[in-house]
């Protein structure tokens, strides 16, 4: 191997490969599990009663809300489904927006939280639903 490929330090390369490959594979699998599989397993279908009564369960319902529930609804329907708004929307606060506090129950930081921001058009229909880190 030394003559054919010009590898001078065969023992060192073998040692590094033996040590580094398990570390690289472990990091790769942790990244896939945390970045792709975990959000899918943690997500849950929207439930209006659970949304109103259990603030910590809101984070898991955001995707279903954004994709399936709110688009096209008017303001009174949204308030009926989600309950009373939690207050102002930070920098996006207008009369055409409604915001809800959406804490991540797995996040240890109590100062960081998400807000579900619902934006209405001039006809009072939902046109955009976003979640923003505040």
SSE layout and pairing:
Elements: H1 2-5, H2 10-42, H3 48-53, H4 58-69, H5 75-82, E1 97-102, E2 114-120, E3 126-133
Antiparallel strand pairs: 1-2, 2-3
Structure description:
With 134 residues, the chain is an alpha+beta fold. 47% of the residues lie in helices and 16% in strands. The chain is built from five helices and three strands; from the N terminus they run H-H-H-H-H-E-E-E. It has helices spanning 2-5, 10-42, 48-53, 58-69, 75-82, and strands at residues 97-102, 114-120, 126-133. A hairpin with a 5-residue loop joins strand 2 and strand 3 (126-133). The longest helix has 33 residues, at 10-42. The chain is elongated.
Distinct helical segment count: 5
Q: Roughly how much helix do the residues carry, as a percent range? A: 40-55%
N-to-C CA distance:
57 Å
Strand percentage, roughly? 15-25%
Radius of gyration: 24 Å
Strand segment tally: 3
Biggest sheet: strands side by side, in what order? 1-2-3
Question: In sequence order, what are the helices and strands, one letter per element?
Answer: HHHHHEEE
The parts where pLDDT drops under 50 for at least 5 residues are none
How many strands, which pairing sense, and closed or not: the largest β-sheet? 3 strands, antiparallel
Rounded mean pLDDT is: 79
Estimate the global geometry from the Cα principal axes.
elongated
- Which structural category fits the helices and strands? alpha+beta
């Amino acid at each position: 191997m030394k003559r054919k490929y010009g590898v001078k330090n065969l023992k060192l390369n073998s040692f590094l490969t033996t040590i580094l490959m398990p570390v690289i594979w472990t990091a790769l699998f942790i990244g896939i599990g945390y970045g792709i599989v975990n959000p899918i397993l943690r997500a849950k279908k929207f439930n209006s009663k659970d949304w109103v009564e259990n603030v910590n369960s809101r984070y898991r319902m955001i995707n279903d809300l954004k994709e399936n529930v709110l688009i096209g609804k008017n303001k009174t329907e949204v308030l009926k489904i989600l309950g009373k708004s939690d207050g102002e929307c930070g920098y996006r606060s207008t009369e055409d927006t409604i915001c809800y506090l959406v804490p991540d129950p797995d996040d240890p930081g109590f100062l960081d939280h998400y807000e579900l921001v619902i934006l209405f058009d001039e006809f009072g229909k939902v046109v955009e639903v976003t979640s923003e880190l505040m």
